[in-house]
Each structure stands twice: as structure tokens, then as C-alpha cells.
Amino acid sequence: MAALASFLIMMEISRFVDMSVSVSIVALSVVNGLRYVLFCGLVWLAAYVFFRRRWLHRKILQVFPPASDVRREIKHSAVSLLIFSVIAALTLEAARRGWTQLYKQPDERGMVWFWASIVCTILIHDTWFYWTHRLMHHPRLFRLTHLTHHRSVNPTPWAAFAFSPLEAVVQGCIFPLAVMLVPMHPYAFGLFMSWQLAFNVMGHSGFEVFPRWMMKSWLGQVLSTPTHHVMHHEKMRGNYGLYFNMWDRLMKTNHQDYEARFTEVVSRSQQKNMN
Ligand SMILES: [Zn+2]
Ligand SMILES: [Zn+2]
How far is the C-alpha of 84 from the C-alpha of 25, rounded, in Å? Predict the structure, then answer.
């Protein structure tokens, strides 16, 4: 339902191409804000309110963060969303001037390319995220760029965009980068945005959602899991990837206890928490 609502909201993005920069900043802020509240809010309500006890065995860290953490995450996310909207509005202005590869008709390059452009953007974003993330962990850059995000040692869904303004600029650059490199329609970018937000919120939810068998299958070798990212917040080192585990495996940056930790989390009994 959230994905459908988000898609319908993002359909509106194509109309922003013809707006002035200042109007599109306001419009994009509203759309981005609504989508963020929708995705994070639904996961928050389910995992931290309604099914808090029922799903507790899947809570990666077995304690809940204080309310002050959540307030801080929401405050930083609001600033990030504003920065993303400014970057997106400037990118749409660049599109108006013909500096990007955004195209107007969804069927202009056929439906195969429409979906392929989303896959390309996901792969580009995964690479962009891994390397900029590792760079921001450099001791000279960490405090200035990435410390804000790491103040969430026990993240909630609201930590997904809890960045410092500088990190928000780095993360927001995926929009201009993607549409400069990949010919794509705004709808395709809208779908990519829904995917990236859904995966990001899942990764910061604090709960493991994948089944036990996954780690022993090819899927576990390819996909990142919430345990992977929560361990990154907890340990501050290793597990730098976003969607996929390829860069971490290639660069040998997976935390040595990652697979054991995943197995421990998904092997817990639900019954113990229900008593
Ligand atoms: Zn980090
Ligand atoms: Zn994070």
C-alpha cells in the first residue's frame, strides 16, 4: 500500500519539470516529506507500537532507543529532505536546459529500457553509496560529514535520512548523477526513489526481516540485510554497503561476525518473548 501511494505521489514529479525552481522546491519538499512520513510512519507503527512484543525476537538489539533519539532522527531527516528537494529542483532546472538525459514520454525508449534504467540507477547508487560512505569514515572527514548519522547507535526507521547537511548533499547527488549518466523518465526515477526509501527504512528499522535460510543461499551473498546495517551503526566499522553485499565482499569489509549475528537473530524463539 505504501509503495502504491508513494508511486502515485511520485507520478506528480513529472509535472514539476515545468515549474520554476522556487515552486518546485516547495512542491518537492511536500512530496518528499509526505513519502518519508508514510514509509517511516508505517514501519514505526507496526514494529515499535502494534507488534512491538510479537516481533521482539527479531529486534536486532534487544533494547528500544529512547524517545530523544527518535526526535533527533526526525529533526535531522527534515533538514536532509529540504536539501534533497533543493538538489532535485536544481536538477529539474538542468533538465529544462537539456543538460540531463531525462526524457518526457515513458515509451520514448521502450518499456524494457524503462525498467533497465531503474536497475542501472540502483547499481550506480549502490556503488556511489559504498565509496562515499567509506570516504566519510576517514578520520579527517568523519566528524564533519558522518557523525550525525552515527549518533543513532540503535537506529529506528526515522534514522534513514538522519544526516548532517554535508552528508545530505553527498547522498542527494545521486539524483543529478543518475540522470546525467542514465537516460530515464521521471516515473522511473520515482520508482527508484520508492525502492531506495523502502530499503533504507528497512535497513534502519532495527528488525531483521529476512528468513533464516537466506544467508546460506545466493540471495544472502548478494543482498544486504537490516542486521548488516544495524551492526554498522553498532560497531562503526565494516558493513559499508547499501542494497547489495558485493562491494563489502569484494573489498573484504564485511564484519567478521556478520553471518553469525544474522543466524543468532533469526534463530531466536518468538515464544520466549510472548511469555
Ligand atoms: Zn557509517
Ligand atoms: Zn545508517
Answer: 9
Mean pLDDT by 10 residues, the chain (275 residues): 54 60 84 91 96 94 95 97 93 89 84 94 97 97 97 96 97 94 90 92 96 93 96 95 96 96 89 52
pTM: 0.89
The closest of 128, 125, 168 to 146, measured between CA atoms, is 168
Nearest to 38 by CA among 88, 4, 76: 4
Please report, as a single letter, which amino acid is at residue 238.
G
- Cβ neighbours of residue 243 closer than 8 Å, sequence gap 6 or more: 122, 125, 126, 199, 223, 224
Angle (deg, nearest 10), helices 174-181 and 165-172: 10
Distance 195 CA to ligand 1 centre (A): 20
pLDDT at site 2: 53
- Cα 267 to its chain centre, rounded Å, is 26
> Which ligand places an atom closest to the C-alpha of 154?
2
Which are the contacts of 163, defined by CB distance < 8 A and separation ≥ 6? Answer: 76, 77, 80, 148, 149, 171
Neighbouring residues of 208: CB distance < 8 A, sequence distance ≥ 6 = 58, 60, 225, 226, 227, 262, 265, 266
**Dihedral angle sign, alpha carbons of residues 96, 102, 107, 109:** positive
Q: Cβ(17)–Cβ(104) under 8 Å?
A: yes
How many C-beta atoms surround the C-beta of residue 22 within 10 A?
A: 9
- State in Å: Cα 233 to ligand 2 middle: 6
Query: In 3D, which of 18, 40, 45, 86 has the Cα closest to residue 204?
Result: 40
Nearest-angstrom CA–CA distance, 110 and 92: 22
**The three three-digit cell numbers of residue 221, written as one number:** 551473498
Ligand 2 centre from 133 Cα, in Å?
Answer: 10
